[in-house]
Amino acid sequence: MRLEAAARMDLFRKLWRARKLILVVFIPLSLLPLPLIHPTSEACCAYVLMVTAVYWVSEAVPLGAAALVPAFLYPLFGVLKSSEVAAEYCKDTTLLLMGVICLAASIEKWNLHKRIALRMVMIAGAKPGMLVLGFMCCTVFLSMWLSNTSTTAMVMPIAEAVLQQLICTGLADSHDDLDTAEATEDESGESDKEDNLEKNQLELLYCSDSNCTKQELNEVQTLEVNGSGLIQKPTQDFITHTNGHLPQIAIEIPNVKRVKARRDSQYPTKRDHMICKCLSLSITYAATIGGLITITGTSTNLIFAEQFNTRYPDAKVINFGTWFIFSFPIAIIMLVLTWLWLHCLFLGCNFRETCSLSKKRKTKKELMSEKRIQEEYIKLGPISYPEVVTGVFFILMTLLWFTREPGFVPGWTSLFEKKGYRTDATVSVLLGFLLFLIPARRPFSSSSSSSCKISDSESDALAPMITWKDFQRLMPWEIVILVGGGYALAAGCKVSGLSVWIGRQLEPMSGLPPWAVTLLACLLVSAVTEFASNPATLTVFLPILSALSETLHINPLHTLIPSTMCVSFGVMLPVGNPPNAIVFSYGHVQISDMVKAGFGVNLIGVAVVMLAITTWGVPLFNLTEFPDWAVSRNVTGIL
Questions:
Q1: Of 91, 79, 85, 145, whose CA–CA distance to 113 is shortest?
Q2: Phi-psi region of 420 (alpha: psi -120 to 50; beta: other; left: phi over 0)
């Protein structure tokens, strides 16, 4: 019986390890009767849509690879020609993203983002409440232009340095009274420590086919843990390679009592732990909020803009300016409410104590934290010429986006005779291209001050601001292919008539008011995105919601814009989005903390978005009427 149970458990383990492969094979085969029994364009398109959606939601294959499924299934089933599918994988938003990535590469290469973050935190101060608010403000600002993931990955190390300084100061305060008592014990145990060090070092033996050799380790560099819980790296790399064998390194087994004591005292007080939780979670939530503000702030905004403009080519209502006007108040309200929610949840409701800017009310920990931030800022040195150029390009790109077609006044595109040729992508690609040409050194200047941050590999006087390697390092090609797969699915639904069929099945909802339909859509996508990737969720739901709006004669923007924003609110689990995973990896928060705090942020987000779409969104997008561009699209689809 035991052998049978063990064999059964072993079989279950093998099946569990192969679950993704089983899913990849089982899903297409189980759904195959649909196009075989009903060989219509709608059924074939639905088959491709369901297979791709399951692959995306389950992540059985990488998202980019799953996005390629329509590229070969649509031609095989006769839904779209191969050339037509290929054209969907590179759109205007792809060029827009490439230009933005060029600017982002320059910002990160020359540490302009770090200078902005540290300066904003220095202005906010080190009081816990103001420190959290300062980090949130700088994260929101950076996330408007950089990806949410890049922003979180950049800001978290700065926040971690501040938190470690807070912990170190707290440990020093709590251990001051114990130093005298431990001095005698340390002296008596000094000889024992040296003996234990000898025993705790492991020497790795490397065996060849003929004999075994043992290399003596002369200089041992071990990793020691300091009192603050930080791991100090060895001053030299003690790794050597011999004839293809593994590197040889001496490893010290840490003393169990010492490690246990460090873990127990990682946070001097519960309040310090709460500050670490609050600051860590505030950064991932702020990155999400900042990504809502601009069209380029997150990939889901780009997916919406391109699918909307493709489905409704006559609708000239979505551009950088209109999106910013609508989303900026949402971000400000969400920022304040999220800060208040996190403050009350982790720091309590005593705002007078945690938000006072008076120096008299600052503790030793807070003064040390401010000193640490100032030291990090001083390390950056004076602002360099490449940082100035990057800042100028940053401001110029923003102004050109705003003034292209502001709506209330003629934009700079009115200076050209032919209309409709220039988009936001034109601006971003032009400025991104110039970054490959402009030298990183100040012209007609031989002083080293203007190029002190330029590495030896870029000592060429005409070395550009960014290189192709800098661009390639940040360019998210998986997102580009994923967005292209969404465009291909949308094109297949349009050509096959599947979107019209879906809309007819949703006619029973015609009795609901527009705000109720929008609320149901927001709650649905915000729930699904907790377990699936944001781009995949939005790509699946956009065609369905578009067809629903056309069937119910609701302005499509009334459901599409709130759904696009709510799909970013997957903040309750580490798997919800990459910024959550980055923050969770630092170890300050547990899943229960993320669920508790994220649930409140999710409710805040849905409520604020609903407030926006029913108030200032109505006159901005004329949501009270079913627009002509949607009527013509609906009639064309029916015909």
A1: 145
A2: left
Among residues 116, 121, 128, 120, which one has the least CA distance to residue 166? 128
Amino acid at the residue 131: L
CA distance 174 to 269: 9
SS3 call for 467 = coil
Q: Which amino acid is at 159?
A: A
Residues 98-118 as b or e (16 or more Cβ within 10 Å = b): bbbbbbbbbbbbbbbbbbbbb
Distance CA 178, CA 186 (A): 12
Of how many residues is the chain composed?
639
What's CA 439's distance to the chain center, in Å? 31
Question: For residue 231, which phi and psi values (nearest 5 degrees)?
Answer: -95, 120
Q: Is 127 left (phi over 0), alpha (psi -120 to 50) or beta?
A: beta
Q: H or E segment at 132?
A: helix 128-143
Q: Are residues 638 and 500 in contact, defined by beta-carbon separation less than 8 angstroms?
A: yes
Q: What is the pLDDT of residue 490?
A: 75
Residue 248's φ and ψ, nearest 5 degrees, are -100, 130
- Pairing of β 212-213 and β 206-207: antiparallel
Task: Report the alpha-carbon distance of residue 289 to residue 297 in Å, rounded.
Answer: 9
Q: Give residue-wise pLDDT tens across range 304-327.
A: 888 888 888 888 788 888 888 999
The answer to whether 127 touches 278, Cβ cutoff 8 Å, is: no
Can you give the pTM of this predicted structure? Answer: 0.62
φ/ψ of residue 206, rounded to 5: -115, 125
- The beta-carbon contacts of 611-619 under 8 Å, at least 24 apart in sequence, are 611/333, 612/326, 612/329, 612/330, 612/562, 613/515, 613/518, 613/558, 613/561, 613/562, 614/515, 616/326, 616/329, 617/326, 617/557, 617/561
Give the DSSP H or E segment for 212.
strand 212-213
Output the pLDDT for position 165: 63
| 439 beta partners | 464
Distance between CA atoms of residues 399 and 386, nearest Å:
20
How many other C-beta atoms are found inside a 10 Å radius of the C-beta of residue 414? 11
Report d(CA 603, CA 279) in Å as an integer. Answer: 20
For 30-79, the DSSP string reads HHTHHHHHS-SHHHHHHHHHHHHHHHHHHTSS-HHHHTTHHHHHHHHHTS
Give the pLDDT of residue 542: 85
- What Rg do the C-alpha atoms of the chain give, in angstroms? 29
Q: Are strands 212-213 and 201-202 parallel, antiparallel or unpaired?
A: unpaired
**Residue ranges in the chain modelled with pLDDT below 50:** 171-188, 190-265, 447-452, 456-457, 635-639
- What is the pLDDT, as a whole number, of residue 459? 60
Q: How far apart are CA 542 and CA 52, in angstroms?
A: 15
10 Å CB burial of residue 238 (0-12, 13-18, 19+) is middle
